[in-house]
Amino acid sequence: MREILGRRRKLLFRRGGRSALLGAALHCATEWQWPVLPGVGLRSAGRQPAGARLGLAERPARRCSCPDPDCVVPGAHPFDPGLLAATTDARMVRWWWTNRPDAPIVLATGGRAPCAVSLPAVAGARALAALDHFGVRLGPVVATPTRWSLLVSPYDLPELGELLHSQDWVPSSLRFHGEGGYVVLPPSQIGAGKVRWERPPAAPKLSTSTPTLFERGDPHAQGGPPPSAAPWLPKVATIVDALVMASTGTPDGGSRLAY
Fold this sequence. Notes:
With 259 residues, this protein is of the alpha+beta class.
């Protein structure tokens, strides 16, 4: 009996680990109203000698599940469904991750959803240090082992074009994720490694001038929902200079797309 209980606990633990992606996807879609969809994910590519020079044992290699054998962003992009399928509908999100519990969480950027600016991890760390030094308030920052993405409030192409036109030079390693773009969110696993929050999302500060609906004791007063709990996002104009400067002083590896 003890053995059976132990096996049950182990099974529940595994299910709980997988459900972390479903829970995160549902939270983004329903609480924050961020349109999401499942990423293509990874698959095993057999065994290869990893770290052979260090005398390490072989380990399974992971490749992208898409048909492209040379995919440069393994696991970190939409495939089926495509990006246009991104939604905030809880039923659809639950169906996706129930059928594909290991799928990465992809945020479709632009429109009413957050946009993002991404740069190499080393440059990202420098930029955050500079922005912190000058007291610039930052929003959520998504980190992979190779790149960091700073989420910002939605911007359009004319606004972005004007900001970049004022720069002397914009490194190719600095990328902008607006309308038609996407960012992979934690706690996804992609080819580059684990996706995590370098700066976790923070709820917007509520005004103290008037009591909230909850403070008045009626969360559904006046027939409306409670205030949005979507994370606060800075404007791209407040951070772009620091990101350009940090990227300029960091080798960008050319224009090769990689995460």
